[in-house]
Amino acid sequence: MPRLLIVHHTPSPHCQEMFEAVVAGATDPDIEGVEVIRRPALTVSPVEMLEADGYVLGTPANLGYLSGAMKHAFDCAYYQLLDSTRGRPFGVYIHGNEGTEGAERGLAAITTGLGWAQVAETVVVMGKPTRADVEACWNLGATVAAQLMG
């Protein structure tokens, strides 16, 4: 069964709301035959990342960059993933209270280096998520999960 790994750092209620919407989209009953695994960025292992067939990455933008937790996840796994995961589908959601450009650039550099295939537009939310933001997160989870359906 294909495996979708949602790697997230959810330190705030706004990040939690976005995360829950991504999970709801990824686990929609219309998406069949995809195992959805959720792991905090500080505890995800390189093995879990290697065993996944696709990814959703969720991070706040802290001090103009992606969270240290998300950076740590990739610092621990990058070289193991480098030649083994090329072409795997992924999506990204980012929450910020100010600029998110650094976080966007950081994740783009990491995923480009890994050769992953972005299958959905990055969802960027500033401040409290609106209904449209939550829907975009739901669509993100559903889109990446649907890419893994047999």
Task: Record keyword descriptors for this entry.
Rossmann fold, globular, alpha/beta
Report on the structure:
With 150 residues, the protein is an alpha/beta fold. It has one domain: 3-Layer(aba) Sandwich (Rossmann fold). It is built from 5 helices and 7 strands, in the order E-H-E-H-E-E-H-E-H-E-E-H. Helix 1 crosses helix 5. The protein is globular and about 35 Å long. It starts with a strand and ends with a helix. The mean pLDDT is 97.
Task: Quickly describe the structure.
The protein has 150 residues and is an alpha/beta fold. It has helices spanning 13-26, 46-51, 68-81, 101-114, 131-147; strands at residues 3-8, 35-40, 54-62, 65-66, 89-96, 117-118, 123-126.
Order of helices and strands: EHEHEEHEHEEH
Uncertain runs are none
Count up the domains.
1
* Biggest β-sheet description: 7 strands, mixed
* Global geometry: globular
CATH architecture label: 3-Layer(aba) Sandwich
Radius of gyration: 14 Å
Strand-pairing-aware structural class: alpha/beta
Q: How far is the N terminus from the C terminus?
A: 9 Å
Bin the helical content: 40-55%
The third-level CATH topology is Rossmann fold
Counted beta strands = 7
CATH superfamily: Flavodoxin domain
Our estimate of the beta-strand percent is 15-25%
The CATH class designation is Alpha Beta
What do the pLDDT scores average to? Answer: 97
Query: Total number of helical segments?
Result: 5
Pfam families: FMN_red (PF03358)
Organism: Mycobacterium innocens
GO molecular function: oxidoreductase activity
Protein name: Flavodoxin
